[in-house]
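so my prof wants the structure for this chain in the tokens format not the other one, which i didnt know existed until like an hour ago. anyway here's the sequence
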Amino acid sequence: MKPGFSIRPFTPDDYDGAISVHLSVYPEYPNTANEWRDADARRHPDLFFRRFVAEMDGKIVGLVGGGPEEWANHPGLVSFNIRVRPEYEGRGIGAELYDRFLQEAAVLSPTRITSEAREDKPRGIRFLTKRGFVEEMRFWESQLDVDAFDFTPYAGCEERVTSQGIATKTYAELASDPDRDRKLYEMDVEISLELPAPDPITPASFDRYRVQVLESPHLLPDAIFVALDGDRYVGITSLWRVEAGEHLMTGLTGVRRDYRRKGIALALKLRAIDYARRHGSPQIRTDNESNNRPMLAINERLGFVKTPAWIAFALTGDFLPQRHEDTKNEEFS
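here's what i got, hopefully its the right format
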């Protein structure tokens, strides 16, 4: 144990302290303690998950958390993330958190360990690469200034989709469809399986989809826009509320393969932007992988502006690293 700080398991009393650490590193992602509590409560009860905190000077100064991902649940695959307060970097806290997490995760016999670092956080990148992690993919959060958006160039886009027999309804408007939730789930799975990702998607069950998506406190029933061909659900985009901040987050956006290149995705995105403006949300945020060119092209066309890229890293092979003097004081940010 490094002198001056201690590592211990996370407890329910630690949410405020843990969020404080997160916000010290990424204030632009204003998560709240309530959101973390809710996310933890919705975790699959049978999936391994561990979180540890580092304490120093009477407060939480770092944390690590991770385990298998429910939607990328492959044997031997483990993911984790570390946060350390910037003013406590360079003291070996991140290294000790990493080691403690690996000790716990050893029960899973991991063959692949993944994590992320943002391109403007060189300490985080250095922390991972010195331990053998290799970059696999980049993805961006992009942001749209809703108030500045000009609908004029897109006049007629929705009408062209409608003329092809495609209607658009919200999740709330589809309440009379007894199969609504099942249809939404099946479309979500079909589209998600084709999205670029470092690891293949492993769809959750319908019951878990209900828990994670349809029963989420962030769901906005009138901001989930579904494209329909008759009674078949063929495309979707959605906006989600956040507890802190006035912006809206974009959920899944996609169209079934046999309905692509008809302008449906663009029309759905325009409906979402109109919703945000009518409800006074100044900004929409979305995430896209670097090799998802079709969706990146739509967002770029609409005026979404990329923020610094997140880099997906993976460690394979001899994944149980030895501590070396040249890495022990590198901190993850």
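also thought this was worth mentioning. DSSP finds nine helices and 14 strands in the chain.
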